[in-house]
Amino acid sequence: MDYTASPGGFRQRKLQPNMRLRNSSMDGSDGSQLFDDTSGAVARNQPGGSQAAGFSGQSLLSDPMSNLAMAYGSSLASQGREMVDKNLDRFIPISKLKYYFAVDTVYVGKKLGLLVFPYMHENWEVSYQQDSPVAPRFDVNAPDLYIPTMGFITYVLVAGLALGTQNRFSPELLGVQASSALVWLIMEVLAVLLSLYLVTVNTDLTTIDLLAFSGYKYVGMIVGVVAGLLFGRSAYYLSLIWCCAAIFVFMIRTLRLKLLSEAAAEGRLVRGTRNQLRMYLTMSIAAAQPIFMYWLTYHLIR
Fold this sequence. Notes:
By secondary structure, the protein is mainly alpha-helical. It is 67% helix and 3% strand. It has helices at 22-27, 39-45, 49-61, 64-91, 94-100, 105-116, 146-165, 171-199, 207-215, 217-231, 233-259, 261-266, 273-295, and strands at residues 2-5, 11-14. A two-stranded antiparallel sheet has the order 1-2. Strand 1 (2-5) and strand 2 (11-14) form a beta hairpin.
């Protein structure tokens, strides 16, 4: 390789005549390529590549081990669902709750009339069919949870309306109103259960029955608050007194058949200390309803 001096003082490389340009060698027909194209060879060596992939997926699905794993997984899922349903029914009796919501429009109308005016009603016994009480829609004396639930929701809405008319409405205050009513209801039911345990009363009265009977007072509370909003404070007191007397009579005539079941079954008055305790307990439960009704509504009317 020779170098020649340029006029500027730099040396330039002099190309040899025997050197060949790379482009000329690559353009030649006899020149060798830098990389060989192997796609055709792969295609020749593996004919129908996509079909082979499809066959492998089908073989995976038709594999007995895969089918066994899928069957085992579905069995585990069904067993887990059955376990959840069993434990849920243990703590929350879904089947029993369906009974307490088996109502219709006729039953609701008659029950509301009975709660407001129970003085003319004579037969207070719950009807039975094959040792089980009939659904509430067939018997107005049967307890239900539809009216207490709707009564509680309506009471919260009416309380919000009353607070709004007094320029005292706020979501926090409405939440306090709803939570306090719910807490008082739970405390009332727990107190009755504790009293039944201490008095050792053998009765078919369940916790859900107590919840239903304790929730009937929301009907009278709604009537009192609405009357107070429409006609003033005097109308509130008059309507509340009427509803308190009605719920007191309703609870007495309903619970005496539950708590005094032995005496009611024999058709005579059973004397003794235990029977007196049952009578006092019945009177106490009935007398507590007007107290809660006034406590939860008096501050809503001004």
